[in-house]
Design a protein that fits this description.
By secondary structure, the protein is mainly alpha-helical. The protein contains 2 helices and no strands. The chain has one domain. The chain crosses the membrane at residues 12-31, 37-54.
């Protein structure tokens, strides 16, 4: 597996696009879903983005410490 910066950036962009797509779908369907279902879906998406943020922050700390 090639770990060049370009590949890493591509993975980050794909992750962000997927997160935004999922969020857009959920916002579009939020008008048709009960409030508790919408809240659970929003919590799952926020958790997913929080995990991504923490992983990226840890990765950046490892890269700068080298």
């Amino acid at each position: 597996m090639n770990n060049c910066p370009l590949e890493s950036e591509r993975q980050i962009m794909l992750f962000l696009v997927a997160a935004l797509l999922l969020m857009g779908i959920m916002l579009g369907t939020a008008a048709h879903l009960p409030v508790p279902v919408t809240v659970v879906a929003a919590t799952v998406i926020a958790g997913w983005l929080l995990v991504f943020f923490l992983r990226e922050r840890r990765h950046q700390a490892e890269v700068t410490s080298r």
